[in-house]
From TrEMBL:
Upper taxonomic lineage: Bacteria, Pseudomonadati, Bacteroidota, Flavobacteriia, Flavobacteriales
One GO biological process term: carbohydrate metabolic process
Keywords from the UniProt entry: Hydrolase
The protein, known as: Family 16 glycosylhydrolase
Keyword Lyase: no
GO molecular function terms noted in the UniProt entry: hydrolase activity, hydrolyzing O-glycosyl compounds
InterPro entries, A to Z: Beta-glucanase-like (IPR000757), ConA-like_dom_sf (IPR013320), Glycosyl_Hydrlase_16 (IPR050546)
Domain GH16 per the UniProt entry, residue ranges: 13-303
Assigned protein family: Belongs to the glycosyl hydrolase 16 family.
Length: 303
């Protein structure tokens, strides 16, 4: 049994074989914590035996990863920071570097949960938090040898915060969170992207948080089983979809990415914007650097 006490934790936590996800505390379901995929972040340094530090990180076109500079542990919390390159120096056409925690082990079915506070971009007006996306997600590698009709790549967004997304003619604000599915499937011999806005019934979920997630912690969870994917916020179910194609082994990941106005989405990728050549980006640049905070990441499998 492991006893964890920290001034930054909401309460004393006892982790043992009977400890369950927040939404499952009152059930009789049997869950076993997967220690290789779970982290309380109570050590002095990041346990890079569990997380990739420099290699095998996701390809990004809008920014670069630099975990040495941008991931630290403080008071039992992992802090992931997005920084503007000094003097706006271009790094292969990008202008920012950020932090990411990507598990070395993979996840297929079970339950993932993280307690997260988003990233403040403190600028005048209503655009606090506009420009970055704190995320907790699962994603696979690409299986180029997948058979016709099968999954090449799958991604489950447990939560994406602060996207300020446009949806049905309305722009979300900072309290709107996204809990979506992404997929690349072999169709007629080629890899075809299936994005949530084109397939909302099977891949898109939105939720209205009770407060500003950049100022407050919330617990974001997701159960993935052979038939369904079920999302939770603070232990409350907020959405579920059929699990038709999300069966490839996935890495458990927390990261801080860029969004508009620092990038523009085209051809299935976020493309870098020079923040000194875009008036809206210049305004938001006043709020950099900024950080998201991860209190814990916990992963379970069914007994």
């Amino acid at each position: 049994m492991l006893l964890i006490v920290s001034s930054c934790k909401t309460k004393q936590v006892v982790l043992n074989d009977n400890f369950k996800p927040l939404s499952e505390r009152s059930t009789t379901n049997n869950w076993v914590m997967v220690s290789s995929l779970s982290d309380e972040f109570n050590d002095a340094q990041v346990n890079w035996n569990k997380w990739f530090k420099t290699s095998n990180l996701p390809n990004t076109t809008g920014w670069k990863w630099n975990n040495t500079q941008n991931v630290i542990l403080e008071n039992g919390v992992a802090q992931l920071t997005m920084r503007h390159n000094k003097n706006n120096v271009s790094d292969n056409g990008t202008y920012f570097k950020s932090g990411i925690l990507k598990s070395k082990e993979t996840f297929t079915t079970g339950y993932v949960e993280a307690r997260i506070k988003g990233a403040v971009i403190n600028v005048p007006g209503p655009k606090n938090g506009y420009g970055v996306c704190p995320s907790f997600w699962l994603y696979s590698n690409f299986d180029k040898e997948a058979q016709e009709g099968k999954t090449i790549y799958c991604e489950i967004d447990v939560v994406e915060l602060q996207q300020f997304d446009w949806h049905n003619g309305h722009q979300d604000d900072i309290r709107d969170s996204d809990h979506n599915l992404h997929l690349v499937k072999k169709v007629n011999g080629k890899g075809v992207w299936f994005r949530p806005k084109k397939y909302p019934e099977t891949q898109l979920n939105k939720y209205r948080l009770p407060d500003d997630p950049s100022e407050n912690y919330h617990v974001y969870g997701c159960e993935v089983n052979e038939t369904e994917i079920i999302w939770y916020v603070d232990g409350k179910e907020i959405a579920r979809k059929s699990n038709t194609d999300w069966y490839r082994p996935m890495n458990v990941t927390a990261s801080l990415g860029l969004r508009r106005p620092f990038v523009k989405f085209s051809n299935n990728a976020n493309r870098a914007v020079n923040p000194l050549e875009d008036e809206e980006a210049k305004k938001q640049l006043q709020g950099m650097p900024t950080s998201m905070y991860v209190d814990y990441i916990r992963v379970w499998t069914k007994k």
